[in-house]
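Worked Example 4.2. Consider the chain below.
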Amino acid sequence: MNELSPVVQSFLAKVSEFQQLWGLQDPDNEEWLVCDSAQFEEADVMPLWSEQALAQSHCNEDWAGFIPAAISVDEFLEYWVDDLNQDDVLVGIDWRSDDDCEEIEAFEIGQLLADVEAEED
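Applying the procedure from the previous section yields the following C-alpha cells:
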C-alpha cells in the first residue's frame, strides 16, 4: 500500500483512539451529507472527520442544516464501507475545504482502520 499522508495518519490515530468518526447528518430526515468530489469528475464524496469539533466547524453556509453525528468504527467497518463502495462514494478525510481534502475509496479507509484495529488487539 502507498505511504500514508500525514492527514490520513492523524485521522486513523484519532479515530482508533476514540473508536468513532464523524459525519454530518440532517436532523430532520437523518440523511447523511454527500457532496460532489473536488478531485474527481462525476464522483461523490462523504466528508468524515476524526473529531466532533472539526465536523461542527462545517455546519454553516450550505451545510447549516446539518449536525455532527458519530459513527462507531465497528459500525463503519460492518455496514458503511460496503454501502459506500457499492454507491461509488469516496470518503473525504478530515475535510477542510473543497480544495483541501484528501478523498479516498471507502474500501481503502476501511482496510486501514481494520489494520489499525488488528494491531491493537
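The chain has one domain: 6-120. The chain has a mean pLDDT of 91. Compare this with Example 4.1 before moving on.
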